[in-house]
Design brief:
single chain; alpha/beta; Purple Acid Phosphatase, chain A, domain 2; six-stranded mixed beta sheet; 7 helices
């Protein structure tokens, strides 16, 4: 059995007042929102409890589906790197960027420089034993990425892009969609559990247009042609579970809450997910893996994360 932990929307980086003079107008407004709201919601004590709980849970790998930062500033990327290292090295942790990590048009290059080892694909030698793939990942445009950990293939898709003021929408883009389809097709005959990581959800329900994934339908069409075993996302700060059609069976698409929120509103209180992935000896209904979702939620009275629920997908 392989256990995968899923975190998202940590907003783990405080922004000092001295940064304000060098900010863009969008960043300045974002800083005000962080000062007045986000800094009271995304708390260091929750992050500390999260790290402690993950250390006790000892998952085989941790994935973070974006928004480690608030305003996409270089000082934030450095701070977020130090925080990532508390979870583990690049062999233990994988990330994809969120819209806050690409807050300005300068942010993508900066995040790639600081988070390269957590973002990039495995080396050719590590992947060719499972699938023909040539990553050579050095630029943000090289998504999707492929990282293989045990029986799991982690396919990192970037939906994050710089946007105008008041917008937080995402896009995968034609070139990345084509590479995603080829990669999933190549992996289809392998014995690997294909887990797609993306920041924005594939559904538009309950999401304002200015916050949606603009080409969500195109992503779903790729998944329908190629199949996958699981899709994980963040962005909405809500727990969600929907399915989309796959090549052989329906694919669970699961969103996780912010994993750092103190939760002044109970439905916003921090959670993270553990996925227990077991290969089935005799697949039924063409499901190759039994995946059990375990939800762990923050309890403010205990100051720790507790078991919330468990279900087989």
């Amino acid at each position: 059995m392989f256990t995968l932990a899923h975190l998202s929307d940590l907003h783990a980086t405080p922004i000092p007042l001295c940064s304000v003079p060098s900010m863009s107008f969008k960043q300045t407004l974002g800083w005000l929102k962080w000062t007045l709201q986000r800094s009271k919601e995304h708390r260091t004590e929750v992050l500390d409890a999260l790290v402690e709980d993950l250390q006790a849970a000892r998952p085989d790998h941790v994935v973070v589906t974006g928004d480690l930062t608030n305003l996409g500033m270089e000082t934030e990327f450095a701070a977020a790197t130090a925080w990532l290292q508390r979870l583990g090295g690049p062999q233990q942790v994988s990330i994809v960027p969120g819209n806050h990590d690409t807050y300005t048009f300068a942010s993508p290059t900066v995040l790639w420089r600081h988070w390269l080892e957590y973002l990039q694909s495995d080396s050719q030698g590590q992947t060719t034993q499972h699938v023909t793939h040539s990553p050579d990942c050095e630029q943000p445009s090289d998504f999707p990425t492929l990282r293989i950990r045990g029986p799991v293939a982690l396919i990192g898709v970037s939906s994050a892009q710089p946007t105008n003021l008041f917008y937080a929408n995402g896009s995968v883009g034609k070139a990345q969609l084509e590479r995603l389809e080829q990669l999933l097709h190549n992996l289809a005959e392998s014995a690997l559990c294909r887990v797609v990581l993306i920041h924005h959800p594939l559904s538009k329900e309950g999401i304002a247009q200015r916050r949606r994934l603009s080409d969500a339908q195109a992503v779903q069409e790729v998944l329908q042609r190629t199949g996958a075993d699981l899709v994980l996302h963040g962005h909405t700060h809500r727990t969600s579970l929907v399915t989309v059609p796959g090549r052989d069976n329906a694919i669970p698409v699961i969103g996780v809450r912010s994993s750092s929120a103190i939760g002044r509103k109970p439905h916003k209180r921090a959670r993270y997910h553990l996925y227990r992935i077991e290969q089935m000896d005799s697949p039924q209904d063409r499901h190759r893996f039994r995946i059990t979702l375990v939800t762990r939620g923050y309890d403010e009275t205990q100051g720790s994360f507790q078991h919330t629920k468990e279900r087989v997908l």
